[in-house]
């Protein structure tokens, strides 16, 4: 059994293993290789953003930072050698286009190299990390965008979620909501999205969970009502996934070699 994480965007994944030790499943895209690729593609990095605008250096959209000929022809250039945009000579009679040529070239009659997907200013090619699964050791996975990681390390987030489980919370949606609430209290000013994946090994303690936490915070005024209805106690020992989405996240450009400080 394996955990496979492909990181091509603006989130970070980490999982709890061996008594809540944080194990990274992805690394933020932020290193010299990323900036070199952007510059070689004709772009630049300013203020931690691609061309002073986009705060991710890898992603599936953002076509204004990509060669549209590559977007329309897919990833054939990755395996078939450097592709070329077709030229007037290739589009005209006689000779025909080359194996990797595509229509709609630059129109100047010259061969123009086509950048591979991995060479674009914003690349859709993900970093992939594979971790072996250990059912006797693996507790849960947290996937979240940078509003979460701006105010806490991987290990702090793992401890936060473990504490919520230890206090009796079974509803993974409420676990995610509590993580967002606590990050807001820590001063996060960025958009936040979080998902928690619980493995069977993770135990649930006794207690009132997130609602008891809210009652304690609110004091005599009582706990605020939760979103979405009652608790979901079904099949608590099976793998479960719930998601609470809070606006659209973004993350500064980063890359695997830009190891975060707490690792």
From TrEMBL:
Compositional bias of kind Low complexity: 74-84
SUPFAM superfamilies noted in UniProt: PP2C-like
Biased composition (Basic residues): 254-263
Phylogenetic classification of the source organism: Eukaryota, Sar, Stramenopiles, Ochrophyta, Bacillariophyta
UniProt cross-references to InterPro entries, sorted A to Z: PP2C, PPM-type-like_dom_sf, PPM-type_phosphatase-like_dom
Signal peptide span: none
UniProt entry keywords in alphabetical sequence: Manganese
Biased composition (Gly residues): 219-231
CDD domains associated with the record: PP2Cc (cd00143)
Organism expressing this protein natively: Cyclostephanos tholiformis
UniProt domain PPM-type phosphatase: residue ranges: 1-199
Name of the protein in its database record: protein-serine/threonine phosphatase
Enzyme class: hydrolase
EC nos: 3.1.3.16
Chain intervals for the UniProt region annotation (Disordered): 74-120, 215-263
Cofactor(s) needed: Mn(2+); Mg(2+)
Source taxon at top rank: Eukaryota
Single GO MF descriptor: protein serine/threonine phosphatase activity
Protein family: Belongs to the PP2C family.
Record's keyword annotation contains Manganese: yes
PROSITE patterns in the cross-refs: PPM_2 (PS51746)
């Amino acid at each position: 059994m394996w955990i496979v994480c492909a990181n091509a965007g603006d989130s970070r994944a980490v999982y709890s293993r061996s008594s809540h030790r944080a194990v990274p499943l992805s690394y933020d895209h932020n290193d010299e290789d990323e900036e070199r690729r952007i510059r070689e593609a004709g772009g630049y990095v300013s203020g931690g953003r691609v061309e002073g605008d986009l705060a991710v250096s890898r992603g599936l959209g953002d076509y204004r930072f990509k060669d549209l000929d590559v977007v329309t022809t897919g990833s054939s250039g990755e395996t078939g050698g450097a592709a070329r945009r077709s030229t007037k000579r290739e589009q005209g009679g006689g000779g025909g286009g080359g194996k990797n040529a595509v229509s709609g070239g630059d129109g100047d009659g010259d061969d123009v190299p086509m950048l591979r997907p991995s060479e674009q200013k914003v690349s859709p090619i993900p970093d992939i990390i594979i971790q072996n699964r250990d059912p006797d050791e693996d507790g849960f996975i947290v996937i979240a965008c940078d509003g979460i990681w701006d105010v806490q390390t991987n290990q702090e987030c793992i401890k936060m979620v473990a504490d919520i489980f230890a206090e009796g919370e079974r509803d993974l949606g409420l676990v995610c909501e509590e993580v967002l609430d606590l990050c807001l209290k820590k001063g996060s000013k960025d958009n936040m999205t979080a998902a928690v994946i619980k493995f069977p090994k993770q135990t649930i303690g006794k207690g009132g969970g997130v609602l008891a936490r809210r009652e304690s915070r609110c004091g005599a005024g009582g706990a605020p009502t939760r979103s979405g209805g009652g608790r979901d106690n079904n099949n608590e020992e099976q793998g479960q996934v719930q998601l609470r989405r809070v606006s659209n996240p973004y993350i500064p450009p980063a890359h695997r070699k830009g190891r975060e400080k707490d690792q």
